[in-house]
Amino acid sequence: MAEAALRAPGAARASAPLLGISNLEAWYGESHVLHGVTFDVAPGEVVTLLGRNGAGKTTTLRSIIGIMSKRTGSVTFDGVETIRMPSRAIARLGMGYVPEERGIFASLSVYENLMLPPVVKPGGLTVEQIYELFPNLRERSGSQGTKLSGGEQQMLSIGRILRTGAKLLLLDEPTEGLAPVIVQQIGRTIERLKRDGFTIVLVEQNFRFAQTVADRHYVMEQGKVVDMIPNAELDRNIEKLHRYLGV
Amino acid sequence: MITIFGVPSAALFGQLLLGLINGSFYAILSLGLAVIFGLLNIINFAHGALYMMGAFVAWMLLNYLGIGYWWALILAPVIVGGVGILIERNYIAPLSFSDQRQSFVLIGATAIGFLVLSFGFSLSATLAFVGAAVIGVAAASIYAWKRPSQSSTVHVDHLYGLLLTFGLALIIQGLFRNQYGVSGLPYGIPPQLAGGQQIRLFDAPIMFMPNYRAWVIVASLIVCLATWFMIEKTKLGAYLRAATENPTLVSAFGVNVPLMITLTYGFGVALAAFAGVLAAPIYSVNPNMGADLIIVVFAVVVIGGMGSILGSIVTGFTLGLVEGFTKVFYPEASSTVIFVIMVLVLLVKPAGLFGRAS
Lengths: 247, 358
Ligand SMILES: Nc1ncnc2c1ncn2[C@@H]1O[C@H](COP(=O)(O)OP(=O)(O)OP(=O)(O)O)[C@@H](O)[C@H]1O
Ligand SMILES: [Mg+2]
Known about the structure:
The complex is a heterodimer of chains A (247) and B (358).
Chain A lengths: L1 H14 L3 E10 L2 E11 L4 E6 L5 H9 L4 E8 L2 E2 L5 H6 L2 E4 L11 H6 L11 H7 L1 H5 L10 H13 L5 E5 L7 H16 L3 E5 L3 H7 L2 E6 L2 E7 L7 H8 L2
Parallel strand pairs in A: 3-8, 3-9, 6-7, 7-8
Antiparallel strand pairs in A: 1-2, 1-4, 4-5, 9-10
Chain B lengths: L2 E2 L2 E2 H32 L6 H19 L3 H24 L8 H20 L4 H22 L11 H23 L15 E6 L2 E7 H23 L1 H11 L1 H6 L4 H23 L9 H16 L4 H21 L7 H12 L10
Antiparallel strand pairs in B: 1-2, 3-4
Helix pairs in contact in B: 1-7, 1-10, 1-11, 1-12, 2-3, 2-6, 2-10, 2-11, 3-10, 4-5, 5-6, 7-8, 11-12, 11-13
């Protein structure tokens, strides 16, 4: 009894979302791009955002990390409302962001890129662990950041936020334009991170890849989340998904 | 008497030394401009005025407080750098704020301060204006500190920053001119560096090297190289370089980029003030000293490449030497040679000799 009573609040906390988004709207200047995005992500979960080009997936990640200049609605992380915070404060709550364009700095070496994001929480990976995950980075650590291949840049972009102790990773199309072996390597990395307890929001065009790593899939259309498909039911909903994605 | 290409060696080396001295100032000032331009994306037109302010602060420290050259070399950059920080926070940063309330507080408090000091306390116009500026900046800083940080910003054209700093430069120069006139105030060479050395080659005298001038060249080289090292080789510099490239992403990693911008502006301005103190014993301390110099320095920046750190150092010293050579061999062109080079470089390599075309 006593044990169950002790465990209950913990269990309740575990089922509360780590990331809760409701009625999120966002603008680029005058153009209104997100029209009330609502979804949540449980701790330790990997969810994807699927949708056609221009559906608003990238904008959703940018709004979560706080780099959209105008956004309204609610984004809570670990119970903290972040909608009025500047991005530097949001990142310090423990979010790591891998942008679609990878964001490798040309004026920094690979090693400097890796060491750039400040540690925001304890428990991040060590540089050595990151090198084990992505051996290429060790070999190229002295090169200029942008002299790396596309795949290596993607590894660097993911690797550098693993050092920070962020619990929630926002990955924007990490497999875009990469060779199949590298896609597999990134898939294995995501699985490994999931096993280690990271929570991941993954934007993907390639739902075949998404299927191999995700627990649930949110589908976006014209600045809204229009559907949610659990991974186990993906095959059954394949036609519907094709219609959503227009493939 | 040794002659080289028909020119007496003392004249030749004397001019080259003068060129190197000028080059030292070009290098420090264009370096500060490059650092500021990299991160803030504005051309700091106030740079010359803040260099002049550095020289004046040294003069004031000596004449009002009895604090000498060596302390001034540290204190003037700190004081003027602090002024730079206040300028950035209260005048430059609000350019990109999406709501202008902080600026209204600044304007309102400055105006009221001026009226009170000028009519209530019958201060002279210059002193009332300086006092009012202090009151305005204090009120706006308190206002900005009391409210939540401004997370929404708008993008403004770089031209506005340039125009704003240009206006500030004219105001600062005008204030010093009102208060101290334009004839120039003397500032002595520190006694440790008085005198000079006769430089000889195989026992033949080549030139006379004043100690203070040698010190200026060495001090500027050290400051330039230390700045270069800090930016290119340290962790702090990596943040600066990254924020110069992509400030949005750097703040998405949890770095306080607005604070970095403020401190960078303060640092660039402190470099200018340091140059001002170095210059005080060579040129007289004069409200126009910055205005005369800064035009040449802008040409140096354009030739070296906007925002290039190493480029501004190398170009600064080199162009000083080129100017010195020209004075010896073709004096008619000595005041225009840098601008001729600027035009040529713009025509051939618009991004500058060390600049990356974007
Ligand atoms: N910088 C911008 N300025 C103005 N509009 C933008 C900007 N970036 C994106 N948009 C618009 O916002 C909408 C959503 O774009 P977003 O990049 O979020 O789509 P996405 O789902 O990530 O697409 P993709 O799969 O192509 O990456 C699009 O209509 C796009 O045209
Ligand atoms: Mg996108």
